[in-house]
Design a protein that fits this description.
The structure holds two protein chains of two kinds. By secondary structure, chain A is mainly alpha-helical. Chain A is 65% helix and 3% strand. Classes of the chains: A mainly alpha, B alpha+beta. Chains A and B meet through helix 1, strand 1, helix 2, helix 6 and helix 7 of A and strand 1, helix 1, strand 7 and helix 6 of B.
């Protein structure tokens, strides 16, 4: 009997099982509710924005930041661009260490922890709102916007 | 039966957990046979105590002396009791006490895995911040899944001596005698 399996086979099989239920113990009700809700947690916009500004403040490209912090570049891109994405705990831990931010607060912002503190929530939302850029649109951006508005108004 | 979702750990997470396991195995002298968890606990200065999910009294007594975030949990002993009951915990780790708590009401054959799982929680750097016992923060289900999957991964790597067991199995002819060995 040949029991050897190469690495590619193992990775393919592991990817197939990713997200499947396994009966080893843990939560069930809360997990099913959480995965079915599909809600965007408002904090995550603040997290994405915070990370982007912190990175740019240090004049680091995405790639440079990912290398310095020892996190995956693709994941960093997802954090900054996908409001529904929840990062790995290790990733937030690494970022917190690099930026010198209390880990739990950053994890809450990233959507990994919940906090009851209303002040924290309000501060996150205010930051997200204030930190949106307000500079003038470029010519290309203006043209693209005009064209899209025209399209939306025609239908 | 309760279930959780299987999680595919990203490369860096698996790598860092493996690095912790490597440190433990090196500290034990790179054993080639089954590890003694007592040796692992001694190496990591961890304490182990048993409680019973069917007898609140012992658990209450054990946690009454614990502190969480500098606050005496005795003022809210119901917190840990609630969490143990609500999430049907088979074992848990109390970070500030460096103590692993094992539910002795579980079948004895499961104690080894449960304890190793908690040992991994104690050595993974990003787990301490998300372990239970805080009144201000709570884990999202996604975070809990991640943490548990990582501890399961680490426990497997530790108990099966990273690649050593796999090498042994691949190098041996499959048979029932081998399984019994």
């Amino acid at each position: 009997m040949n029991m050897s399996r190469n690495r590619d086979w193992l990775i393919r099989k592991a990817e197939q099982e990713d997200g499947c239920f396994v009966s080893v113990g843990g939560l069930v009700d809360a997990l099913e509710q959480a995965t079915q809700s599909g809600k965007v947690i408002p904090f995550k916009c603040a997290f994405a924005r915070f990370l982007q500004l912190a990175r740019r403040d240090r004049k680091l490209s995405l790639e440079q930041f990912a290398n310095k912090v020892d996190i995956d570049l693709v994941e960093l891109l997802k954090i900054e661009t996908d409001a529904q994405y929840t990062p790995a705990i290790r990733t937030v831990h690494q970022i917190a260490e690099f930026l010198g931010i209390p880990e739990r607060k950053l994890m809450t912002l990233a959507g990994l922890l919940r906090v009851k503190d209303a002040q924290f929530q309000n501060a996150a939302l205010r930051f997200a709102a204030r930190s949106e850029p307000v500079e003038k649109l470029s010519q290309e951006e203006h043209s693209a916007l005009e064209e899209y508005v025209k399209f939306l108004c025609e239908r | 039966m309760r279930t959780i979702r299987n999680r595919f750990l990203d490369e860096r997470t698996a790598r860092d957990i493996d690095a912790q396991v490597t440190k433990i195995l090196r500290g034990l002298g790179n054993p080639t046979g089954p590890i003694e968890l007592a040796d692992v606990r001694a190496l990591l200065h961890l304490d182990r105590q048993y409680y019973s999910s069917t007898n609140d009294g012992l658990l209450r007594e054990l946690i009454s002396k614990a502190k969480v975030a500098g606050k005496q949990v005795i003022t809210r002993p119901a917190l840990i009791l609630d969490i143990v009951r609500k999430f049907d915990l088979k074992a848990f780790w109390v970070p500030d006490r460096k103590r692993i708590m094992i539910d002795e009401a579980q079948p004895e054959l499961k104690w080894r895995w449960n304890e190793t799982h908690e040992i991994i929680h104690s050595v993974v750097p990003w787990h301490e911040g998300v372990m239970m016992g805080d009144t201000e923060y709570s884990l999202t289900p996604d975070c809990h899944e991640q943490v548990e999957a990582e501890a399961n991964y680490g426990a497997g790597r530790l108990l099966f001596l990273q690649g050593l067991f796999e090498e042994f199995v691949r190098g041996s002819k499959p048979s029932f005698d081998l399984v019994q060995k």
